[in-house]
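Suppose a colleague, Dr. K., hands you the sequence of a protein chain of 71 amino acids and asks what its three-dimensional shape might be. Before reaching for any lab equipment, you can write down a predicted structure in token form. Begin with the sequence itself:
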Amino acid sequence: GTLGLVRAFRLAGAERAIASLWKVDDDATALLMERFYEGYLDRKLEPAAALREACLRVISARMRTISDSKA
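The predicted structure, expressed as tokens, is then:
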């Protein structure tokens, strides 16, 4: 399962791994990872801070999309 995959990455030497326990939308995941790497690589945020900011940005973008579609 998912946790076994994370464990395999850790055993192979990965310092960190991100995994989901449920099905996720591919487009949303791609956007999340783009935002994560912008924070982590470009802005030199710590991984947890980059992930948090990426999550908030994706949620905000999705909320705007929903709001715009109702207008």
